[in-house]
Design brief:
Strand content: 15-25%
CATH class of the largest domain: Alpha Beta
Radius of gyration: 23 Å
CATH topology of the largest domain: Rossmann fold
Number of strands: 13
CATH superfamily of the largest domain: NAD(P)-binding Rossmann-like Domain
Oligomer: single chain
Mean pLDDT: 87
Shape: elongated
Number of domains: 2
Length: about 400
């Protein structure tokens, strides 16, 4: 039963015939696991707590950073450097003391995902990388747990419900991840601060609908949101009978190594320029373009920031190429020649006519430059290296005055 305090708190829910006391009791008795306490996780957590979901689990192992604050509204300036889980727990307790918050300070992987996800009624996946996204999907299918999913990138977002009973899963829509590094992340391409608030609120609404049984959850449908034009479009899709996880003859009956699954190397020659050099200002080749992470490609020859620093201080004859966009250079600059990724195929022959000369490629984190190195080596540049960690590593290990973003 609801206590007098709960009746007062949820009175506007109780007035809704579709929810009423029965629906509110379903919320109170339910449990939702929120994977990722970031841009999407912040509004999801706040609204699920406010709605009265009885037990809310949070999976995250990150700390609050300055660059989080323009969109991750669960945190404030005084929280920078603190554990996201600890701050989230305190804030949710303040929002609604009737809710139990369970913290999972771990990296979700194949060794723990089934146990953690299987303990909840619904999952709300707000992750920012393909490895965890496919992991969550497969664990949800295998445990029979519906997944209220959302993703974001720049000005666009997607919301759907995967792995519901008799409904399609994420792999029905995207059977395989895109080529490693082919899809830029929000960290590379940016994101409008309000976007995760919009998509996260929609994601929370889907979770509430699944719990209470009201309305029509987005099962077999993807809601696509473009805040620049304020277009809301729905794409319908069906269950794939050949799906490796939820199809008629599934081949995945246990969790696999998702980092390996999502990070296969695909070297790009001249015919692969459009895939390898999709700049974050353009539409990436994989349909799922929202808030997808970039994976570092194994086998890419690298140097670390200490080696580069020594080279810059010495008399080494080398060329440092910065493949970021021009606007990024105004934020942080450690030297080198700017040659944005999307201009690389057209201009590299004039910028670096000597293919034997040592070249170091760099970007914000080392992800885009890793792709550039693979492509360069395909063009006959055998003495080209990636700067591991990029600008971020330089700021952390060489010069803290260099801004990170």
């Amino acid at each position: 039963m609801l206590s007098p305090q709960e009746r007062a708190r949820y009175s506007r829910h109780l007035l809704l015939p579709q929810v009423g006391e029965e629906g509110q009791l379903k919320l109170k008795r339910s449990s939702v696991l929120v994977v990722g306490a970031g841009g999407l996780g912040s509004p999801v957590l706040m609204y699920l707590a406010a709605a009265g979901v009885g037990r809310i689990g949070i999976v995250d192992f990150d700390e609050v950073a300055e660059s989080n604050l323009h969109r991750q509204v669960l945190y404030g300036s005084s929280d920078v450097g603190s554990s996201k889980l600890e701050v989230a727990s305190r804030k949710l307790e303040e929002i609604n003391p009737h809710v139990e918050v369970v913290l999972h300070p771990v990296r979700l992987d194949r060794t723990n995902a089934m146990e953690i996800i299987g303990a909840y009624d619904v999952v709300a996946d707000g992750t920012d990388n393909f490895a965890t996204r496919y992991l969550v999907n497969d664990a949800c299918v295998l445990t029979g747990t519906p997944n209220a999913f959302a993703s974001i990138y720049r000005f666009d977002g997607q919301v759907s419900v995967f792995a519901a009973e008799d409904g399609p899963c994420y792999r029905c829509l995207f059977p395989e991840p895109p080529p490693a590094g082919s899809v830029p992340s929000c960290a590379e391409g940016g994101v409008l601060g309000v976007l995760p608030g919009i998509l996260g609120t929609l994601q929370a609404a889907e979770a509430i609908k699944l719990i209470t049984g009201i309305g029509e959850p987005l099962i077999g449908r993807v809601l696509m949101v473009d805040v620049m034009s304020m277009d809301f479009k729905r794409l319908s899709f069906g269950k794939d009978v050949e799906c490796a996880v939820c199809g008629e003859r599934p081949t995945v009956d246990e969790l696999v190594d998702y980092e390996a699954f999502c990070s296969g190397v695909q070297e790009s020659g001249s015919s692969g320029v459009e895939t390898a050099f999709s700049d974050s200002s353009e539409s990436p080749p994989h349909p799922d373009t929202q808030h997808s992470s970039v994976f570092f490609s194994p086998g890419v020859p690298e140097i670390d920031v200490h080696e580069l620093h020594e080279m810059m201080q010495g008399e080494d004859d080398f060329l440092l190429l910065d493949v970021r966009r021009a606007e990024e250079l105004t934020i942080a600059d450690i030297g080198g020649q700017l040659l944005p990724m999307n201009e690389l195929p057209e201009k590299i022959s004039s910028v670096a006519p000597d293919k034997a000369r040592k070249i170091v490629m760099m970007c914000r984190s080392g992800a885009r430059s890793a792709r550039a190195v693979l492509w360069m080596r395909g063009q006959g540049y055998d003495n080209v290296f990636n700067l591991a960690g990029g600008i971020i590593a330089w700021s952390q290990k060489i010069d803290s005055s260099v801004a990170t973003y």
